[in-house]
Design a protein that fits this description.
Layout (H helix, E strand, L loop, with lengths): L2 E2 L12 E9 L9 H5 L4 E7 L6 E3 L1 E2 L2 H5 L10 H17 L8 E4 L7 H6 L4 E4 L3 H9 L4 E2 L5 H10 L2 E7 L8 H11 E12 L1 H6 L12 E2 L2 H10 L2 E9 L5 E8 L9 H12 L5 H27 L4 E4 L3 H9 L10 E2 L17 E2 L1 H7 L3 E4 L5 H7 L9 E4 L5 E2 L2
Parallel strand pairs: 6-7, 6-9, 7-8, 9-10, 14-15, 14-17, 15-16, 17-18
Antiparallel strand pairs: 1-5, 2-3, 3-4, 4-11, 10-13, 12-13, 18-19
Helix pairs in contact: 6-7
The structure holds zinc ion.
Amino acid sequence: MVGRVQNCRACGGSLTVTMADLGLQPASNAFLASAAEVAEEKRFPLRAKVCDVCRLVQVDYDVSPQELFGNYVYFSSYSDHWLQHARRYCEMARTRFGLGADSLVVELASNDGYLLKNFVNMGIPVLGIDPSDTVAAAAEKIGVPTLVEFFGLSLADELARGRQADLIIGNNVLAHVPLLNDFVAGISRLLKPNGHVTMEFPHLLELIEHVEFDTIYHEHYSYISLFAIEQVFSRHGLRIYDVETLATHGGSLRIFAAHSQRSDIADSDALIEVRALEKSAGLGELSTYMRFAQKVEECRTSLLGFLAGAKRAAKSVAAYGAAAKGNTLLNFCAVTPADITMVADRNPNKQSKLLPGTHIPVVSPEVLMLAKPDYVLILPWNLQTEIRAQLQGIEEWGGRFVTPVPVTRIDP
Ligand SMILES: [Zn+2]
């Protein structure tokens, strides 16, 4: 399961077309705390390929979870935005699916229980499943029963012998699953005959349209279109019948699915519309993915051009936001601390460490403000409004903001 992937993880087709070749990259969240860690840093090929047959976009080199995550643990509850998103979803789901005290809601990758606790408060029985014992312990503490397991067909089989689910939820988990078929087969097995599935994932259409190649990292095995995921679901007896578009993660889809034999549920207008949008954007054509590869090169050329220009003019460049997407971009462009002297981040756990691969020091926003850089490169473009507001004072010394994607742009 670790190393080069020769065939499509969904349908077994060939992976001949490269959508983005991002070179050798360390794990995007492997921040370095010491010289010893710098010396031991490992890099792995990071390439997004598209399947010749089903058009699933996927990385073709799998890194072991130990290498990827180490001690890194993400708690969903840290984000107010997510808490609100989850609460609204649960209210919608209770009404739409008629959930009550006799129902069972199962969430895959349930994290610290931030979503399921809403159902608990409504008196609806829940079960969380998550492979991380740290987040599971946090979930149990707030009253969300959680199994510490990787989800797949064998676990689903075991659970279904006891009780099947009325609703199965999976938010931002599909992309993280190396064995996609086993995972979706498990969902089908665990779901009641009249049950529903909802899943959220970043939409490949948005990634392509906005050249968001910096959201490609080893932790994300697949980059999902409705076109590709409908084929996977259908292989396991599930049918997608509705879809919502969401603003999260640079543009996501929320799909609704049921067992294939549910002929009483019609395809929604929104589903038909997203299928048409993907078709007109060329997601069924291999040439679309080849064109994307050129845009990725243009992005690199423009960032390197900007950095060279700043150096010639003796202008200093700092960056803001030590997020995973920044690491993909900076490593792809082989940026060094001579180009970008520091990256500021509000997370104290990242400060005084080095960025993986580029070894740029992470500092607090206060340090960046004291350094008065001529340019501040905003790495998490999805948070740029917030970041601009936070660093308002940079105009006082003539500092300017720069955004790197789809091509590097300096604020006028
Ligand atoms: Zn395929």
